[in-house]
Write a structure and sequence with these properties.
The chain is mainly α and 196 residues long. Helices cover 72% and strands 0% of the residues. It has 8 helices and no strands.
Length: 196
């Protein structure tokens, strides 16, 4: 018998998924779903794992097998898409509030700069309002009109009520153009990355 005809006996290959528990499988799928929504957070995943393991431990103390305890824990925690979507909404609400706060601060700062007697470069300020409004909506703020008002309303308020300068209303125009411009760019990016 030649060495080239010799075949090794077939040995089943070890598959790493064979030892994967339902908890590990659930966490892997949840991690993937959170990444899809763009809100992956390792601390949140660790917290979910902790809750699931506590639930498994409670199930085993009640006399269930480990497999049945894992299955029950996963079922009680909820479907992966629902859990990930809930976390994404919670995270996005925090981000929305943070972006709105940044917009208000940027608007107030712009109004402060514009009110200085030594400031006379309206073009730079208008460009800054346009860019800030656009960046905030590009980063994900859902309602561009709110950002436009949050950034652009302060200069007209000061201009109309304090200095009687009705031309300052143009700050709002730049804020709206920037906010809707950033919003449209974000929509195009989303359509490109996630085509329907």
């Amino acid at each position: 018998m030649s060495g080239s005809n010799f075949q090794m006996p077939s040995i089943p290959q070890w598959d790493s998924r064979m030892a994967e528990s339902q908890i590990q499988s659930y966490l892997r799928a949840l991690k993937r779903q959170l990444r899809i929504y763009g809100v992956f957070d390792s601390e949140y995943l660790a917290e979910v794992e902790s809750h699931l393991l506590e639930s498994v431990e409670a199930g085993t103390h009640q006399g269930l097998s480990v497999e049945d305890s894992e299955k029950l824990a996963v079922e009680r925690f909820g479907p992966i898409k629902v859990v990930a979507l809930g976390f994404a909404k919670e995270r996005k609400n925090i981000v929305q509030n943070l972006l709105l706060a940044v917009a208000v601060i940027a608007g107030l700062f712009s109004a402060y700069i514009d009110s200085r007697p030594t400031w006379d470069d309206t073009g730079i300020l208008a460009f800054g309002i346009l860019i800030v409004s656009g960046l905030i909506t590009l980063l994900g703020y859902r309602r561009p009109w709110v950002i436009a008002l949050a950034v652009g309303i302060w200069i007209p308020l000061h201009g109309i009520f304090i200095t009687h300068n009705y031309g300052s209303i143009l700050a709002l125009v730049f804020a709206f153009v920037g906010a809707y411009g950033g919003w449209l760019v974000r929509l195009v990016i989303q359509k490109t990355l996630h085509p329907a």
